[in-house]
Each structure stands twice: as C-alpha cells, then as structure tokens.
Amino acid sequence: MTLELSFNQQPGHLRQGSSIGQPLTRRDGFLKVTGAARYAADNHPPGTLYAVLAVASIARGRVASLDVEAAKAHSGVVEVMTPRNRPALATDPDAKDHPFMFRLDLLQNDQVRYPNQSIAVVIAETLEAATEGAALLSPRYEALPARVGLDGAKSFVPRGVGVGNPAVQEKGDVEAGLKSAKTRIEASYETPAQYHNAMEPHAIVAAWDGDRLSIDTPSQGLAMAQGRIAGLFGIPPQNVHIRSPFLGGGFGSKGMISGPQVLGILAARLVGRPVKLVLRREQMFGPVGHRAPTRQTLRMGMDGEGRLTAIDHRAKTASSTFDDFFEPAADASHTLYASPAIATSHEAVRLDTGTPLFMRAPGEATGSIALESAIDEAAHACGMDPLEFRLKNYAEVEPMTGKPFSSKALRECYSQAAKAFGWASRPLQPRLMRDADGFLTGWGLGTATFPALMFQAEARAVLRADGSGLMETGAQDMGQGAWTAFAQIAADGLGLDIDQVDFRAGSSDLPNAGIAGGSGHTATAGMAIHNAGAAVIARLADLATGNEASPLFGAGNEGVVARGGRLYRRDDENRSESYGEILTRAGLIEIEGHGTGAPDPAFQEAYAKHAHGAVFAEVKVDPDFGQIRVTRLVGAFAAGRVINPRLVRSQYYGGMIWGVSFALHEEAITDRRSGRIQNANLAEYHVPVNADVPSVEAILVHEDDPYVNALGIKGVGEIGVTGTAGAVANAVWHATGVRPRRFPIRIEDLLG
Amino acid sequence: MRDFDYIRPTSIPDAIAAAAEPGSAYLAGGTNLLDLMKGGVTSPERIVDISRLPELNRTERLDDGGLRIGALVRNADLAHDAAFAKDYSAVAEALLSGASAQLRNAATVGGNLLQRTRCSYFYDTASACNKRVSGAGCAALGGENRLHAVLGWSDACIATHPSDFCVPLVALDAVVEIEGTRGRRHVTLEEFHRLPGAAPQRENALEPGDLIVAVRLPAEAASFAANARYLKVRERTSYAFAVVSAAAALVVDDGKIRAARLALGGVAAKPWRARAAEAVLLGADANEATFASAANAALADASPSGDNAFKIELARRIVVRALMSAQAGTPERLPALPASPFSSIPGARHDA
Question: What is the pLDDT of residues B226-248, one digit of tens each?
Fold first, then answer.
C-alpha cells in the first residue's frame, strides 16, 4: 500500500528553474490547516479496539496485585494484558544488541523501575471503557524508596556519553593553564529534567494479518522502528509496514519506537483485532525519553589579553537504573572556543526514572547554556565586551582536535546579528539599562553550534514517458517541512518542475531514508534523492546519446544538462530532447535510478564539520518582581546551503524559542520523596507561546561548504536551541546583575 | 472514566432537586470539572448540566445601583462587556489575565468561584491529599511547594485558591447569591470560601444541592472605578496561574485615602481580603510609604508553608505596586497584557 497524498500547492507558489533555494510554503500546509492531514491516531480500521495503559504510581518496587477481574467485568472491556498473558516475544525487551537499542518495558515482569511505567493494558470497545477498566485495576505495590535527584544515588563515571563519546577527555594541561592564567573564573549551573512534549502524543494503530503487521504511528526513523519491531516479534522486517506521513513533533522522543507503541502492537496480537493506543499527556513523562538534569561546573583561565589558557568543563547527569543514556553536556566545550588546554568530564547517578534519551540538541543544549554563561562571566572578569571576548577566543581550527573546519562563517554570524540587534551601544556593566517604563533591560549573547551529521539513506527515482517523475524515500516530516524541502531537491535532481514530481515519503515500504534526527535528515536523505535523480538522468542520457535518432546523439564526453523535463547538450543548448521523446523512442514506459546518501569517507576524518550561529537576546525584568520577558531575539546562522529559506527560518525560530523555554520555563518538577513528576501537564509544564516571545529574527548567513556533502547542506533543526538559552541567561544577568545558576530562572532568584 | 448519570434539568428547582442527591455535581463550562473527572480526582455519579438553564446568563443593573451577574455568564463575555469593564475594570482585568482565550470562552462566573486548587498533590491521585480524601494527609507539606500558601494554611492543607476573578471581587465586597433546597440566600464572597483548618475538604459555604445563581457587586463597588487595578505576577507572560496577585481599589481625595480595598490572590486557600491593610490605608496620605505600611500589615500574619518564603516578600511588593497603580488611575483602555507587570509601571524611577 502506498501512501497517497494530494498536496494543494497553488501554481502561484511554483517557480521555474531551480527549486532549491526557493522559499516555497509547506506543500502539506493546506492539509494541516484544514484537518485533512491524517495523523497516526486519526486512523481507524474496521473493528478497531481501544487500548489504555495502566501505569505505575510508584518509582521503584513491584506490582503486588492487579484487580483484573474488576476491569474485565466492566462493560465494554474486552481483555486485560498483564505480564501473565502478554503474547510471547522473540527477543527479550531487556536485551541490548547495540548501544542504540534501548530497553523497553513490555510487561516482561512485575517490576517497577520508574513512575508512569506501563504495568497493564486494558483493551475495550470504547476509549471510555478502556480508561475506566485501567482505573479498576487498582494496583497494589510493594514499594521501595525512590532514588531522586543528582545527589540521590552514588556517582560513577559512565563508560561513554551521548553517542559513545569518551566520558573524560583532555587536551593540553588544564591545571597548568589555570595556574598560568591572570584571571580565573569558576562557575556552576544546574539544568532540570525536561520532557519533549511534542504536541502529538505517541500513538499507534496496529493491525495484524497473520504474521504481517500494519502500523500507523509517528516515527522519526521508520527503518529503525521496523527493524526493532521485527526483532521483538520474530518476523521479517518487510512484514512490518509503518505509515508515518505526519508527526506532530518528535524532537527525539519518536526516534526509537517506544515501549507503549510496542504494547499497542502486543495488544492487537492478543485480541486479534486492530488496536489504537494513544498516550495521555501525563503518560509521556516516563516511557518515551527525556532530557536528563545536569549540574555543570566550569573553570576558565585567561591571560592578560583575555585569551583563554584553559577550559575545564565538568558535568554530572543521571540515567535510569536499567539503561544507559548520558547527556554529553561537557562536550559542548570541544568545538567553540580556542584554548591550549581543554578538559571535559562526566559523572552520573542512576535514578528511578525512565531512561533519558535524545532531546533536541542533546548535550549541546545543556552544555551550551553553561558554557555560554561561563564565557560571559569570563568576559566580565576580564573587563571585556562579551562579543569582543568571543572574537578574541575565536577558534580557527576545532579546539579539541586541531582539525580544520569544513566551513565556518561564525564571524559573519556575529557581525550580522550584532548589527541587526544594535549590540554596539551595550554598556559593559550590568543593571545600567532601563526602558521608558522602568523595566530593567539586559542584552546577552550566546554562540550557537551543532555538528553537521550525516547518516545512511536510500532513494529511488523514476522518470516516466509522460514526462513526469517520481521520487521515493521513507523520509519523515516532523513538521520541519521535509515534504517540501525533499520535493525541491527531487525536482532539481530530476530536472523537472516541482509540480511534475510525485514525491513519496513517510512509509516504511519506501527506500530507507534513515533517521530524522541529529539535524542530519535533509543532508542524508537529500543526498540520496540527489544521487537517485542523477542516476536516473544518467540512464536517460545514455538512452539519448547512444541513439542516432536523438538530437543528443554523440554528446558523449561533453555530456548533457537536465532542465525543465528536457536534456540539453551541454556545449550546444540548441540541441535538446524531452524526457518523454527519449523514453517513447526507446519503447520504455519508465526508467529508474537509485541513490544513497552517506557521509563522504574522504572528508570524514579530515575536517571538523559544524553549523554555527550567534544569538542576541534582549530581556526586560520587572525590578521588584523578578518576572522576566524576552522582548527581542536576533540570531544569525550559517549552516551551509539552504534548500528552503522559509522553512529554515522557521526551524531557527523554533529552536530559538526552545532556547527561551530552556532558560525561563521548562522544568519537570519531581517530588523529592516519591520521584513522581508533579507538573505532567501543559498548564504547569510551561513552554513559551506568542506572548512570551514578541519578536524573533533569524538571519541566514551565506556559507559554501565543499566538504560536508555534494549539496553543501549542514543542518538546522537543533542549532537554534544552543546559543539562545545562554543568550537569555546572559541578558538576565546584564539586566539585573544576578548571575543565573539554575534553570529555568525563577522569580525568587531575582528578588534580591 | 467511570460511568455517570447525566441530567439536564430545565428549571432551577429541578436542578437543585437533582443535585441534592449524594454524588452529584453541577456542570457549567466544565473547564475544571471535566479535567478532574478525566484524572480520576473526582468521580461524580451524577452530572447535573445547568449550562442551558434560562435566566442565569444575564447581567443586570439592580435598583440599588448594584450589579447582578448571572452564574452562567461566560468569563470572556463579562470581561468584554464595555459597560462592565468601565465600572469594574479591575475585575475585567483579572478575568482577562486568567487562563487562555479558549478557556475564558467556556468558563462561567459561578464555575470560577468553584474552581479547585492547582496543588499538584490534589491532582495526583497517588499522593496523599486531605482535600481529596479526608484524613489522608497532605503530601504538599515537605514536598514541592514553592507556590503554596503563605497565609491561612494549616497542617492539613497548604493549597491555594487559583482564581484571578475572585480577588477583585472579594475586594469589592461581592456577594454570592445561592439557591438551595431551602430557598435563596446571600453569602459574602469573603465568607463563601473557607480556610482549610482541620477540614480542607470543605472549601466553601455550599450545602448539597446549593446552586450559585449570581454574583452581586454592591453599588459602592463602582465608586472605585477611577482607581482600581489588578496585578498578577506569574512565571509565563502568556498563560500561568498567579504566583501572587493583588487587587487594589482606592478613593483618593486631595491626597487622602477616603476608601480602600485590597485583596491578594495565590497566597491562601481563599481570595484573601487584607482588611488590616485597608485600615492602615483609610484616611492616610496616598503615597508609597503608606502603601508599604499597608503591605506590611497585609502580610503580618504570613509564614512560609515550605519553600515559598519568597512569596511573602513578593506579595508585599505586589501590594505596593498594585496600590500605586490604583492611585495612578485606571487606564483608559485595558492594557494589551491585562494585569501583567509588563503593561506598565506607574511612576517608575528611571535611575537604576
């Protein structure tokens, strides 16, 4: 089954010539604003039952009893799935074949290892019956004391952090660098646990047909999810068909298939009917990942001219008791500021929480707010303007490795954003600016950075005798605009106008597009699309140049150019032929080509590859109340080639607003005794909305990068969070003279 | 969700008769009740839907100069009623500072009085809460309680009342008109909400079947129209419950305070009328020193119930600012950010 989407792309939005670089509006925008876009939970195959999770209210212990009979006696309840009757799995959900296989809670036993862990699934004819059935289970527990907070358990040094980076790294002699310094600072910062809180909860509609499985569920990585599910159920991956045309946000929480999603599949298996399972908002605080809390300490030394002599960045974080993910916060100090000595280290505790996972800029976001705050403190200690200080310590090569940058237009980012913001008139000392209404006003700066990552992807391109084209890749649109940006790359790759290209994505029966994560999706799947286009055009060119009847016969080494549905002789554009003519003469209905996207090994090791940016923030603070409002954000970013400036700008906006959220709003408040999260709802887990961010500007700085990939694409999804959070914190200091030490910044921190 | 009976009476007496049965709950806007039911916090056996009852959605001027606001008038409709906003701008400002536009479109006047606390332990059915289960204990004590009560709390309960609307109402001597099985009666809003004491599950003066039919503002309330403000400090400019809020209303004549009203929100289990502060204000010179004395009087009995000592100092400052704002005069138009400190600071000193 292929996903059919009819986009409403008005002709007025279409452009002739190259599609890449055009600010097209979202091709799926009309579907979304009219409600026609079908998200996972909107699907409802005939006979669908509703599944509702019963989740643990304790953090640690075991389920002593469940009143299954009471639940089953409730009208409409069809079945209750517990560890006793849960269908068998082919592999242990606690097995871990590789570091990116995370342990799942799939009712394998009666143990509870974090609050909101699934302990049973009630399946019923209606959502209401399933919900009440889950309540009727009235679980009783044997509870053990919860381990809560960064001081709540014994600390250790993890074997690796993030995606397997060493927990401890050092270049040069940090202690000697600090000793030789004229000026030193030492500063600590705490960041809280945060939860992704995508607007769309994790949802699944699962239907079995023998040993074939059909699934609608949001996924940032279709092939990975397909493989994980196939492994758990002992069926071939191709038997698992996942449709994920639209995600209502993912931010990392939909990168790996989560336990509750698999429980939906198990429930369908158990009852032999399609099952729909949608997480409640509070159930997203546990089994689908989060950003772990951190406590970070930075020491910096500076010589008499404000040059860094040493950076020591230590981070303490937490993982769950049963799996490993360690927020690589200190690694943020590897890439931004030149220093002869840099040390980064991590320690961690194991707490009774769900396993933390990748959350938008994992490590970079937490590390950046601490690093950028500390850099600000260091600049102040040296009596220097924070921008001047950053330029003084500008890294011409990657500080930790000494590698050259594949490209780095950070200087241009600083200068363009500073100019747009009006930074030059900023007083050096804090608490000197007030606006006409008497509000304390502060300006702060943060540097943004995120690595330019690529993964593996494939795409299939088809040219048809009717002159149209098809591009297929199992890419995922989380809302970032993949439907549009990839179609633009496909149109260019096929030499067709975008309305002549049928672009298919969001389904696991299409070529593997890798993961929409690490800000690498556009580069990775985009390169696969680009290469698939080139492959099918090459086949087409062979057909033309090898045929005497073609005006392109004999173009040979000169080659041809594909544009607007025609091939042109490169050295004589008066000689051309349409795709349709070439295929029709060859007696072919269509031809196809395949392409892959992957990092180029020739440049992998030789260059440090990062996107960069500079974010300037203005805050207003009520002098008596400490209430803070970010009134202006200006960011400038250089991230290689921009496929669609409108969408890229939106990504920067989203990231920057997330940075505001990090600095001022987001925090999962965990009860210090029970380990339960007390604000697992969107009324009290605050994120900023329009009134909280009156003005955001994102400047796209031109950057050519010949090394990252042939298209020159870096990535824009996560970088906006970095830099911004620190910029807001630094602006709060500049407004008030109070240095934020914990995030989010609270009113009581500023009351004085 | 547990099954429940749903009744839609067509008259007030029918509604009262239905709701007098044990296990009943009135449904009006549903903005709070439905959430509580979905969360298993409350499980009424019978829902008495009064949302279509006639005559409860009108606002009328009374012969004595007072105003009678029907219990089913929507928060948004009341706040955007130009005549109402002119006479009672602090009330309109409070309404518009609460919740979100969508919620205000649904929420009713009567329901606002009856909204439950936002104490997370009340909502978390796995936690002990004396409000939810009498005698169960209070998990908020010793827990995550930086936003909890600093006035009028007890060892049984440290929750706060979350309403913005009720704060200026209690300052302006609003009266709750209640119809019950034994007829109609009037209870001042100040007496309507109860402090927790040893029985935090009893939150107000309502008896089984009692229906709030209207809220009355006495004639005198409009005399503060020129100098009345509501001010709310919150952790997000857009939409958040008050950390602390205050309503202040003054009649100032030749620099002397001839009448004063002051109430605090977010500090106690009820909207907190600060009568001791009013006594300080009455007859005194209208200046910052007087306002500071009033603030001290308002918070004289305050004590932290946990990690919330900062709220006491914050409340003092909000009282001073609210009084200064009231003295400066009610703005011609409601500010774009109603009740927000970011709407303006009166008499701000421009030195740092």
Answer: 999 999 999 999 899 999 999 99
Whether residue A490 contacts residue A462, with contact meaning beta carbons closer than 8 Å, is answered with no
Spell out the alpha helix ranges (H) of chain B. 12-19, 33-38, 75-79, 82-87, 89-97, 101-106, 109-114, 120-123, 166-171, 189-192, 275-281, 288-298, 310-328
Annotated active-site residue A175? The verdict is no
Q: Does residue A2 surpass a pLDDT of 60?
A: no
Task: Give the CA distances from residue B23 to residues A13, A633, B212, in Å, rounded to whole numbers and listed in that order.
Answer: 59, 52, 18
Mark yes or no for CB contact A625/B233 under 8 Å. yes
The verdict on B101 touching A (C-beta cutoff 8 Å) is no
Mean pLDDT taken over chain B? 95
Contact across the interface for A686 and B3, Cβ inside 8 Å? no
Q: Name the residue with tokens 């603030």.
A: B295
Q: CA of A659 to nearest chain B CA: how many angstroms apart? A: 15
The residue count for chain B: 352
Q: What is the ipTM of this complex?
A: 0.96
Phi, psi of A644 (to 5 degrees): -140, 105
DSSP per residue, B288-308: HHHHHHHHHHHTTT---SSS-
Q: Given 3.40.50.300, 3.30.1360.30, 3.30.43.10, 3.40.50.720, which CATH number is that of B5-52?
A: 3.30.43.10
Whether B235 and chain A come into contact, CB under 8 Å, resolves to yes
Contact B40 A671 (CB under 8 A): no
Average pLDDT, chain A: 96
Q: Report whether B271 contacts B167 (CB < 8 A).
A: yes
**Residue in chain A lying closest to B350 (CA):** A438
Residue B324, C-beta contacts closer than 8 angstroms, at least 6 positions apart: B288, B291, B346, B347
**Distance of residue A148 Cα from the nearest chain B Cα, in angstroms:** 13
Cβ of B243 within 8 Å of Cβ of A747? The answer is yes
**pLDDT interval class at A17 (50, 70, 90):** low
B225-340 belongs to CATH 3.30.390.50: yes
Residue A626 with chain B: CB contacts under 8 Å? 314
